[in-house]
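Q: A reviewer asked whether we had any structural model of the full assembly, not just the individual parts. We don't, so I'm hoping you can provide one. Inputs are below.
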Amino acid sequence: MKRRDFFKSAAIVGIASFFKTNAFGTVLSGKEMAVHTGPDLVAVMGGEPEVMLIRALKEFGGIKTFVKRGQKVVIKPNIGWDRKPELAANTNPDLVGALVRLCKSAGASEVIVFDHTCHDWQKSYANSGIEKAVKAAGGKMVPANDESYYREVDLPRGVNLKKAKIHHALLECDVWFNVPVLKHHGGAKNTISMKNLMGIVWDRSFFHSHDLHQCIADAATFHKKPALNIVDAYRIMKSNGPQGKSESDVVKLKSLLVSPDYVAVDTAAMKLFSQVQPTDLKDVRYIALAEKNKVGTQNLEKLNVKRIKL
Amino acid sequence: MKILKNIRIVLSVLFFLPIFIFFIDFTGKLPIQLHKFLSIQWIPAILSINLIVLGILFLLSLLFGRIYCSTICPLGVMQDVLTWKSRFFRKKKKKIRYDYSPPKNILRYSILALTVVVFIFGSSFLVILLDPYSTFGRIVSQLFRPLAIWGNNFLAYILSGMGNYTLFKVEQVGFVPLAFGIALSFFFLVVGMSWFKGRSYCNTICPVGTSLGLLSKISFFHISIEESKCIRCGACEKQCKSQCIDSDAMKVDDSRCVSCFNCLSACKKGGINYKIRYMKTQVQPIEHKINNSRRTFLLTSGAAIASVALAKTNKIIGKNDTILSRKPIMPPGANNLEHFSAHCTGCQLCVTKCPMQVLKPATLQYGISGITQPHLSFSTHVFCTYDCNICTNVCPTGALQPLVMEEKKLTQLGIATFRKNKCVVFTDEKDCGACSEHCPTQAVHMIPYKNGLTIPEITEDLCIGCGACESICPVRPYQAIYVEGSMNQRKARKPSEAKKFNKKIDDFGF
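A: Here is a predicted structure for the entire assembly that you could use as a starting point for your response.
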């Protein structure tokens, strides 16, 4: 073989393999989900947050599947409350920090983190430990405490919620990750990935006065979907949610659920949660309503679910 | 002797700036310990019976005269700063010149007597209105602070457009017209008087100034004119912002001298000195020239009668339900209404330090004598934070007693009241639960209603009246759940903890 030919064939193989893992893979996964091209949902159990995150992402082809060099990334954890990490009222700071680091390593030009908090935003950012973790990982905490940061967006597929003001950082980014924590919730029964969307919206009181569940399901029709929903179940809050009273409300499950599908990941999370606190999936009405809005499926049987125990 | 003036200026800046900046600070970044600067003020020290500070202030006044007025009192220093800055606005080369003016004894002693008598009869109305430190607090918090915040927001707006979030927009919730009006009126009164008449506010209206004037008549050191050296040029008189030097008569009215030492710097001949009053050679008779004692007596007795009347109307208003649509909600640490209304001077420090901006100056919630005293005013996302006790720790007058965090979390500011027939779960038959979601103690919790719906229920002895439920209730303008203030702040029951879950979960469950 001539030297030149060798280079040619090597290049072709290289290009082909590149296509196979990436472009081919994504094209296929859209249609033939049952075929083993990539998982629809990955569940990991038994590790530290960062370990589980890296393991789960590996199933999707690593962080580079989602984040390309030079892209602007937004991460939306739950930072709603002025509570320390041990109370599981907010997303685990180690998980958020690890995700920021991964995005940065994939070449993201900027990684922005925010939440429209319920408690004082500065105290929530600080005491959740998330601000520190994000800054240490090279990310940027952005305020979301004022209406001027939000822009109105149409939600044509929404039933009750037809319009919403959404944080401009999210509207302007290239890719975003929804990183909720799994919790009991006095109003919505449980808060997982879709309930976490209330933190990208300005006017939450509209939700409460126009059928909370329907509005949550409507928010999930927002056209700019997260690349992944990464549900933190390292510590979950089993009772007295969403704030919790003490560490007695917290159970350490050391788990992580990852899926691009809101409905699937919330369904799976509810099944995990129900082992601790039996809850009727039907009572978490927004899950079924979101399925009706065609944003995902509750039928986990039909999906390619990867269960990984570390 | 010129050094005295410079020392005074340096000291006054050192006292003034921390207080000023502390009141302005809207970021909460300044250390809360700065409030200790405020306990050196006369009225707060009297109300909180801070014997050490009172002793020091008394001794200082007895030794040096009214140096409180020229160095420690922020309202006094503010006048000096503004007068000093006013040269930019005055006509060129037209320097500020003062002339001797006789004391307004009837007015100043009547105001002092009235304030004292009214306070003794149980109304803080005049103390609140006239305490110079609190007046300063109201002026800064109502006038300067909003300006600073607007400036910040403008910069934040420009910076965030460039992707820089080091500054962030600070929302200003709630505007209280009466408190603003009082602050604005006093600002114009004080600044106007000092613009044309030097320290005439301090020497006619301020009851603290008047009382210190009595003390400075016998102070150990005082300003006096050296008759042998004085050439009656009047240079000192022109510099005297208290207008208390009569250079023709070579007399200084000690009761109005604020020991600013400007006169010492003005005199080139050494004709005016700051020296010991009780020197053997120059024993001066203590001036005692209130020749209108009869009028003063009449006025004082009139004041006593008026005060009784005022205290009484006050009580009537307190019971009048048409003015108080609901009982006001006092800040944590206020204990009971009696203690709180007698000690709070409405200085607005707690109001400016409240990170949630839930504390607001009262209009008529506490009646006439409680105008500008702080109360809780809830609005969307604005309620008393569970893990916060800042207001209880900054109060300089002791109206709010310090509470440690665990105590604060159990202090009942009020009790939530639920109006079921207004609740969206009842009216629309849809889930909501926003109140319970925000309730930190789960005094408001959800119980089964019908069709899988849940509806709020209140356990009163768990409720601490923080207003989180009221602030978030979507029913407007009159919420389905609201807080009724407690006039006597009791201890709530400690919320019980949930049952621990100890089983090991090995499976995903799906």
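A: Points you may want to mention in the reply: The CA atoms of residues 159 and 176 of chain A lie 24 Å apart. Chain A touches chain B through 58 residues (CB under 8 Å).
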